[in-house]
Amino acid sequence: MPSIRGSQSKKKTRRHTRDLDQVHADIQSKKHLQQYHDTKAPEDLPGFGQWYCVECAKWFESELNFTKHGKGKPHKRRVRQLKEEPYSQKEAEAAIGLTTDNGKKENVDEVMEVEIELEDEVK
């Protein structure tokens, strides 16, 4: 019996790995990566969790598969994507115009004094 969303829907969700921002956090902080590893039981992982590609967030059965993966095009593509800095919430808000930084604020009193001095010089 075909799936409601199509025959390919289950395959796509099974292959889904961690997003780029999560992997970037894993690379920056070993603690973040360790928290992710602690959620997985080693008995349930391929190769008992010995061979893990941090960039692709994938587990491998053997060291041979792991080294072959490192030489492959999908791994190299993922590494290239990770070289770019991920977007932050601040950048996203700035893109739609929700910035809070309107430049350096000047005191209203100081501006008034400067205007008065300028008027005096002009006269």
UniProtKB/TrEMBL annotation:
Disordered: annotated span: 1-33, 67-88
Example GO BP: ribosome biogenesis
MF GO annotations: nucleic acid binding; ribonucleoprotein complex binding; zinc ion binding
Bias (Basic and acidic residues) ranges: 18-33
Compositional bias annotation for Basic residues: 8-17, 68-80
SMART domains associated with the record: ZnF_U1 (SM00451)
Keyword RNA-binding applies: no
Keyword line: Cytoplasm, Metal-binding, Nucleus, Ribosome biogenesis, Zinc, Zinc-finger
Primary residence: cytoplasm
Keyword Nucleus set for record: yes
Cellular compartments per GO CC: cytoplasm; nucleus
C2H2-type domain segment(s): 53-75
Annotated localization: Cytoplasm; Nucleus
Family: Belongs to the ZNF593/BUD20 C2H2-type zinc-finger protein family.
Protein name in the entry: C2H2-type domain-containing protein
Source species of the chain: Recurvomyces mirabilis
